[in-house]
Amino acid sequence: MTSTSSSGTGAGDQTPPVAAAPEPAAAPEPAPAPGAPTGSRWRQVALEIATGSAGVTVLAVVLALLFGGVLIAAADPTVQAAAGYFFARPLDLFGAAWHAVSQAYAALFSGAVYDVEADSFARGIKSLTETLTLATPLILAGLGLGIGFRASLFNIGAQGQVVLGAVFAGYIGFAFQLSAPLHVLLAVLGGAIGGGLWAAIAGVLKARTGANEVIVTIMLNNIAVYLIAYLLSLHSWQRPNSNNPQSPALHDSSMFPLLLGDGFRLHAGFLLAIVACLVVWWLMERSTLGFQFRAVGANPEAARTAGISVATVTVWVMVVAGALAGLAGAAQILGTEGGSGLTEGIAGTVGIDAITVALLGRSKPLGIFFAGILFGALRAGGVVMQARTGTPIDLVLVVQSLIVLFIAAPPLVRAVFRLPSPRSHVGAETPSALTAKEVRA
Amino acid sequence: MRLELRGVTKRFGSLVANDHIDLVVEPGEIHALLGENGAGKSTLMNVLYGLYDADEGEILINGTPVRFGGPGDAMAAGIGMVHQHFMLVPVFTVAENVVLGNEPVRPGGLINLAEARRRVKEISDRFGFDVDPDAMVEDLSVGAQQRVEIIKALSRRAEVVILDEPTAVLTPQETDELIAIMRQLKDAGTSIVFITHKLREVRAVADRITVIRRGKVVGSADPSASQTELASLMVGRAVDLGVHKAPAQPGEATFSVEGLTVLDPNGVTVLDDVTFQVARGEILAVAGVQGNGQTELTEVITGLRHAAAGTVVLDGESLEGRSVREVLAAGVGFVPEDRSTDGLVASFSIAENLVLDQYDRSPYARLGVLRPGVIRENAERRVVEFDVRAGSVEDHASTLSGGNQQKVVLARELSRPLRLLVASQPTRGLDVGSIEFVHTRIVAERDHGTPVILVSTELDEVVALADRILVMYRGRVVGIVPAGTDRDVLGLMMAGVPADEAAIQAAEHHTALGSADHGSAVQEGGEAL
Predict the structure, then answer these.
(1) Which of A138, A283, B41, B104 is deepest in the core (most CB within 10 A)?
(2) CB-based contacts of A94: which residues, under 8 Å, 6+ apart?
(3) What is the 3-state secondary structure (H, E, C) of B124-191?
(4) Is B325's CB within 8 Å of A308's CB?
């Protein structure tokens, strides 16, 4: 049968009119233009922001702060007292609640961005520099975790990698005597190597044996904690004339330079974090290694079929992620802690908070940068809030947790703000694209 | 029972999957619902079976409107469904599966297995199903499992049985048996709704044919309509079902597989001493029912899986033991059988997918750095060349229809010089238009002098494209036969019957589909696809 013809068999009578007029085989048309003028592109962007992940993130933060406000009010003694005679004077309650919440959040703002009560600009802006200082390790470690998430590796091991980064950087910092730029560079490099090697253990175990990276990295976190405790018990790591588990102070030559002079803690580690954001963006979007990372993360089967070695990628992802977390550890010990040396608590909760930062930042460098700043701000502001209004800093933890909760449930946020679901917009495009190619009936 | 659907509409968001569909199934009728993948057949049946709630329209049984809150209601009303993927518990016996969810109970809450067996036996005997009530479902052939599903429906007194793409998993002989069963059910007064996109089956068995396209009923036809007419109706434009290809001009055999044996992780032999050669400019079609070692064969060739024994040689170079990357670099193009899992990264752009296995080679990258401009330009060119209907090459691959996704995979694999093309199920789930396109490109690659291995479970495709046909059964090569071998012979070989024996058996007994072919060949004066 070489050509189409509707003549022939006995179906002539039954054949409905539709089939009676066959059309010529559809000529391949060029790919249809997107159909919409460029003007609607902005509308698209606006919709994307409002309904897509970025918008949900912002709204989740807003919602979490609102809930936090309710908690502040509920925990405030004046508000509680006013609630006792609510029916007599209801306005008292709202007044008291407003007062408590606005005072607490004002203090939070003062601690995080600009202290309005400060007597000079320098003192006022110190809050912002604190925020940036606290954000630095969160951004660095968050970038590492974000790479893992995008490659489908749920690396929970940033804490241990931060510790190892601090151990390596710290040791180079106090044990060697070198000239300034070289010393700090070596210490930073050591931090990256320390974190990278620690993470590589998990990567190799996963690649070789299929071990679950979540479990392995959690265990490595524990091991790291005991490792640092062990190291600090060694004579060569002990600070002379001290009974505390603390290493000798770092040489000044190994320290990150302070960016704004002695009055501020903000150090060059923050610049490192900015550079790391750019490098990670470049790595993921522009390098062939990043292409492999993303391909394995999005569809390991297809990546394997396309000749990408999933095992090798797994190891590399962990190494890069660990190196970034190690840099966070280096930023802690070479900058934020002011050279006071290695302690068991050097990593704080950076590795854990960084998970939240990476999730909040949607695993993308820019998102992680802002998420890190937000968490730094909450942390810096929380301290001031506790000091000035007595609102416990734990509230900050609650707000952070609520943010994650809301982000994990985008439909909830959309429901609260009555946003349309993004799917309906996608759906609106598909059928029209379909009908465009082959019409009629 | 007379079943009627009136104005049934089902929307998913803004997509109208069913648009005011009217359908009447008369008692004792085999009613074929014909349409391409994604036309809305399954959605309609899921509405009928109570799995979806219709947005508009009503279902009438014997003229009375009914509402189904779930499959339970539908079953109670006498509607049974055999899903494309069987809903059976493999480690239960036939009897246990049949009564599952509807167990006869003895006092004390114990299942009355004797009663269950009796039910199975009764139905099995009535229709000559030959199913042992005590057999484990996992030990049964696919055809037998399907009969268990049918028994399950009948045991709940189904008067209308919906068969959703029932022949997709069957050999031609099993299909033939199914057709016989359908006719028996019909004679016993049971109506059957037969969902399919296979034209020859529809013509062989249906009493009436309703054609659905893009969620709408576009017409009904009589089974005597020609395949071309049915296809045109289904697709909405004139369709040429034939594949135009000149006779093969095979050159030297540059690819060979010898004594290839593969074990699965449990040590079970999945590929057993497979030997064949493919010449330049030749399409070797690998036919067989799904799951007889074809997947493993393609995986070994491409380096995704390692062989326990045997050699794979391309142009004198050994391929086995090489990584996928090295195999691809050696000039092997691979169209994997499951494009959404193995062929594409759905969340990657079309442009990125077009270089998925070449992203790190010149000109797409230099010194480990991607060159987005070159990648994009390449995509713009391929999209035109392969007629991929996409808004922009930066759109995610997931926004494409199945046919266009497959074109992306083909465009990627055919866009570099090949020394071997392995295409596995290249047209599965595609619309007729895309199938034509894919077939044309594969033949073009052959004419370009590339040896081609085409793995397909669709006999139509095998017959249309093959220059030689290799039939696989249980990991072994049953035989390699020339193109033009009788379908019935191929069907028997797919069930493990050696070629010569199959030829004798086929001569004695033609299958229903085979006979339909012979009939239509006379009517239409040519070989239809």
Answers:
(1) A138
(2) none
(3) HHHHCCCCCCCCEHHHCCHHHHHHHHHHHHHHCCCCEEEEECCCCCCCHHHHHHHHHHHHHHHHCCCE
(4) yes
Question: How far is residue A144's CA from residue A157's CA, in Å, rounded to a whole number?
Answer: 10
Q: What share of chain A is helix, strand, coil (3-state, %, to 5)?
A: 70, 0, 30
CB atoms within 10 A of CB A274: 14
In the three-class reduction of DSSP (H, G, I as helix; E, B as strand; rest coil), residue B228 is classed as: helix
Which residue shows structure tokens 């380096």?
B303
- Rounded to an integer, the average pLDDT of A175-202 is 95
CA distance, residue A428 to nearest chain B CA (Å): 6
The reported pLDDT for the residue numbered A174 is 94
Q: Name every residue whose Cβ is closer than 8 Å to that of residue B371 and which is 6 or more positions away in sequence.
A: B363, B364, B365
Q: Name the pLDDT band for A275 (thresholds 50, 70, 90).
A: very high
- Compute and round to an integer the Cα radius of gyration of chain A: 28
Closest Cα in chain A, distance from residue B195 (Å): 20
Closest CA to B251 of B449, B421, B509: B449
Enter the tokens of residue B505.
Answer: 């058996």
Element (H, E) at A325: helix A310-331
Mean local confidence (pLDDT), A367-371:
94
Q: Give the per-residue pLDDT at B528.
A: 36
Q: φ and ψ at B66, to 5 degrees?
A: -130, 160
Q: Tens digit of pLDDT for each residue in A107-123? A: 999 999 999 888 899 88
Question: Which token pair is A16?
Answer: 């409905």
- Residues in A closer than 8 angstroms to B221, CB to CB, are 11, 14-16, 19
Q: Using a CB-CB distance cutoff of 8 angstroms, which residues of chain B are in contact with residue A305?
A: 302, 304, 324, 334, 336, 342-343, 357
Give the whole-angstrom CA distance, residue B42 versus residue B29. 19
Mutate to test the interface with A, among B36, B43, B207, B237 (most CBs of A within 10 A): B237
Substitution target from A14, A41, A437 for chain B, most B beta carbons within 10 A: A14
At B254, list the tokens.
């540059």
Between CA A391 and CA A108 the distance in angstroms is: 10
Boundaries of every domain in chain A: 137-369
Shortest CA distance from B355: residue in chain A: A306
Note whether B228 contacts A1, CB cutoff 8 Å.
yes
The mean pLDDT value for B17-43 works out to 87
* Main-chain dihedrals φ then ψ at residue B392, nearest 5 degrees: -145, 150
Would the pLDDT of B482 be above 50? yes
